[in-house]
Amino acid sequence: MTPYEEIDSPTQLHSDCEAVNRRLDRAARQAVETPPSIHFEDFPRDLPKREIQVSEAAQRLANALHLHLD
Q: In whole angstroms, what is the distance from residue 66 CA to residue 70 CA?
């Protein structure tokens, strides 16, 4: 067993280096980008609340239990 037995072919090593280079380029671009804002006015998302409907049967049951769902 030689110390070089685990080394891949030059083609495989070259493609690995290209993949690493692409990831390093992407990481370098992300490192200098402006970070996303944390201010509410930059993300105004006030969603309307859903209407909750209470059926007559549920209201009678709640009234019998003195929960008073009005």
A: 11
